[in-house]
Design goal:
Blueprint: E1 38-43, E2 46-51, E3 59-67, E4 81-86, H1 91-95
Antiparallel strand pairs: 1-2, 3-4
């Protein structure tokens, strides 16, 4: 089993020891604020960097799960619903053009798992 990096609360740099097999790991725990920090790892002089995307926490408006046809708050099991809230999907998924230069129309039933 590899050992975790130290210190475990670093915001800038962390050093990891390897186990007998040369394996180490780091858990990257992102903060609560939306942003795009860059995470860089280095081993044997080779650096690998990637951008981590921290999305704003989604929220559902009070009373905003409604029947998709009538917009009434009474929802029967198995029926379609509409959910109103904010930060429920990445904005890029709604605004990016598809390969033909058009926005997604019609929109899919689920976007980004929402």
């Amino acid at each position: 089993m590899s050992r975790p990096a130290s210190p475990n609360n670093s915001t800038s740099s962390t050093v990891c020891a390897t186990d007998n097999y040369g394996i180490a790991y780091v858990d990257v725990i992102l903060g609560p604020n939306a942003g795009v920090p860059t995470v860089t790892g280095q081993a044997a002089g080779v650096a690998i960097a990637f951008d981590a995307y921290i999305l704003a926490q989604p929220s559902i408006n009070t009373g905003a799960v409604v029947n998709a046809a009538s917009y009434q708050r009474t929802v029967a099991p198995g029926s379609y619903v509409s959910i109103f809230g904010s930060n429920m999907v990445e904005a890029d998924l709604l605004s990016n053009a598809n390969g033909m230069g058009h926005r997604w129309l019609p929109l899919p039933m689920a976007i980004d798992g929402a």
